[in-house]
Amino acid sequence: MTEGSELRLVEDEGTPTEPNPAAEAAPAAPAADEKAEPVSASAGKLARADELLAAGNHVEAAEQYGAALSADPVSLPAMLGLGVTLLAQSHYDAAEKEFRKVLRLAPDHLDGNFQLGLTLFRRGVYPAAAQQLGKAIEIDPDHAAAHVVLGEALNQMGDTEAAIEALEAAIELNPESGRAFYALGIAYDRRGQHDRAGEMYRRSRELGGKVT
């Protein structure tokens, strides 16, 4: 996945090790070409994978991200993209594995932390999800979607006050997030503020109940 995509991913691609120039009688220039070829192949497959992901073709996108990783095994965009496609297909264990690989190489990777938190949330591991989403928010306090999913996780954990705080922050950052209003309605219901909850549900319906 490339920088500027919907998920605002950070690129940090590695490159293969150069061949030992003492091993061959050939000049240095062919060695440079040899080094550039796998990276170029990875970039082409990565671009194709991004196109397939944008089109919603998750199966073929996963194949292309995998091919990009075969050409460049330390490509963070390819790892992250593969994780996103696996998550979209509900392959939670495999997605989590890819996101953890990203974070081993780049612990402060914003979308690596967010996507891992989202994966843990969808698996129902709410405390771990909240911790990971909190890390994403530390990196970028203006990450509205992280606040939304954090609020949902806190709702599931029964921490109503913290959920309200997270969801109100999400709405301040993105007033068009119907999903945040819906989750906030749940939190207000649990607090006993049913009229206020009704206002949140109504606003969510108006916005379509989506994270935008």
Q: Key terms for this structure?
A:
disordered N terminus, Serine Threonine Protein Phosphatase 5, Tetratricopeptide repeat, 10 helices, 2 domains, 212 residues, mainly alpha
Q: How does this structure look, described?
A:
The chain is mostly helical and 212 residues long. It has 2 domains: 1-106, Serine Threonine Protein Phosphatase 5, Tetratricopeptide repeat (Alpha Horseshoe), CATH 1.25.40.10; 117-212, Tetratricopeptide repeat domain (Serine Threonine Protein Phosphatase 5, Tetratricopeptide repeat), CATH 1.25.40. Helix content is 71%, strand content 0%. It contains 10 helices and no strands. Helix 5 (110-122) runs antiparallel to helix 6 (126-139). The longest helix is centred in the N-terminal third of the chain and has 27 residues, at 28-54. It is elongated, with a radius of gyration of 21 Å. It starts with 27 loop residues before the first helix and ends in a 5-residue tail after the last helix.
Give a topology summary:
Blueprint: H1 28-54, H2 58-71, H3 76-88, H4 92-105, H5 110-122, H6 126-139, H7 144-157, H8 160-173, H9 178-191, H10 194-207
Helix pairs in contact: 1-2, 1-3, 2-3, 3-4, 3-5, 4-5, 5-6, 5-7, 6-7, 7-8, 7-9, 8-9, 9-10
CATH C-level name of the largest domain: Mainly Alpha
Task: Profile the largest sheet.
Answer: none
- Which percent band covers the strand fraction? under 5%
Number of strands: 0
Helix content: over 70%
Q: Per CATH, which architecture of the largest domain? A: Alpha Horseshoe
Terminal residue distance: 19 Å
CATH H level of the largest domain: which superfamily? Answer: Tetratricopeptide repeat domain
Rounded to an integer in angstroms, the radius of gyration calculated over CA atoms is: 21 Å
Mean residue pLDDT: 85
What would the CATH topology of the largest domain be? Serine Threonine Protein Phosphatase 5, Tetratricopeptide repeat
Q: Structurally, how many domains make up the residues?
A: 2
Helix-strand pattern: HHHHHHHHHH
Shape: elongated
Instruction: Flag low-confidence runs.
Output: 2-36
How many helix segments? 10
Briefly note the structural class of the backbone: mainly alpha
